[in-house]
UniProtKB/TrEMBL annotation:
Matches recorded under PANTHER family: KELCH-LIKE PROTEIN 32, LD33804P
Pfam families per the UniProt record, alphabetical: Kelch_1
Matching InterPro entries: Kelch-typ_b-propeller (IPR015915), Kelch_1 (IPR006652)
The name this protein goes by in its record: Kelch-like protein 38
Superkingdom field: Eukaryota
Length: 156
């Protein structure tokens, strides 16, 4: 939720509605500007996005849907759906796979449950597999991939 005190962006965009429309905010590095890219496929709310290979992947958001945006082709591709409709979850990439943690899930009778699920998406096979459960439910969190570098003796 955006704070009421900051509802207008630097370029005059109304941030209260900017993210609620079928628009994707895109930052143009060389022009140092933001613009709205319209797509009818994006209706995801409370969904993380990650860079997976050459694509930007939008994961869930009150839906099971996974969308991958290819910036070179300027095209969205639908990926395999998650098992549950999820929101407020975390996502991170390790190696060539996407991992999704916790969040909240929407049940078939439209109740919201906190989740401890830990799932993996493999883009090569376009499949999801469960990696078990987190130690406790977790939502409204972020995920970060850390790479450890091994140093050998005598390295200067």
């Amino acid at each position: 939720m955006l704070p009421e005190a900051r509802t207008e962006g630097a370029d005059g965009l109304d941030l209260r509605t900017f993210f609620l429309q079928p628009l994707l905010p895109v930052y143009h590095i060389s022009r140092n500007t933001w613009f709205k890219m319209e797509t009818r496929m994006i209706k995801n709310v409370c969904a993380p996005a990650v860079v997976l290979g050459e694509r930007i992947v939008i994961v869930g958001g009150y839906t099971r849907r996974i969308l991958a945006y290819d910036p070179r082709a300027n095209k969205f591709v639908k990926c395999a759906d998650m098992k549950d409709r999820r929101m407020h979850h975390g996502a991170a990439v390790m190696g060539s796979k996407l991992y999704v943690t916790g969040g909240r899930r929407l049940t078939t009778d439209c109740n919201i449950e906190d989740s401890a699920s830990f799932d993996c998406y493999d883009p090569e096979t376009d499949t999801w597999t469960s990696q078990g459960q987190l130690p406790h439910t977790l939502f409204d969190h972020a995920c970060l991939t850390l790479q450890c570098v091994r140093h050998t003796a005598g390295f200067t």
